[in-house]
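In response to reviewer comment 3 from the previous cycle, which asked for concrete evidence that the modeling workflow produces usable outputs, we include below a single protein chain processed end to end. The sequence was submitted unchanged, and the resulting structure tokens are shown without manual editing.
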Amino acid sequence: MAFPPEPQELRARKIGRVILNTATDKPWSQYFCCMAVANREFVRKHPVATKRALRGMLKAASICALQPQRAVKLRADKGYTKGVNDALQAIKELPYDRWRDYDPEDTLRFYALRLREAGLIKNNPQKIIAQGTDWRFLNDLKKELKA
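The workflow returned the following structure tokens.
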């Protein structure tokens, strides 16, 4: 199991074989790979800061999708990236431009079912969604940050 830039480095050295690529293999590729999570009390007390942080994440995702070279340069300038070519390949392989298309509730349901099947959680997906999600900020930002 590897996360960028390890897969790119392993491929370059011809080590191993890809069994599952969640960025390209269905059904995994049809869902968000990551989600923003916040403390309920923080969101209640600081809705403006919450929306501002989420806006920043979504704008960063857009930069990665539309200007991958710029994103890699920013990472390299901050010292977060060693192999610029591997980082560029990783950014180009990930679906940063799909955040408007994917359904976060469906993603949560999909992963909650996987976790429940594995015995890692006991609650059913609907209960988790009902008690632990708030899509208001994302829905507002989808309208605000039109493509």
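Helices lie at 6-12, 40-45, 47-66, 68-77, 84-93, 104-117, 125-132, 136-144. We consider this sufficient to address the reviewer's concern, and the full set will be provided in the supplementary archive.
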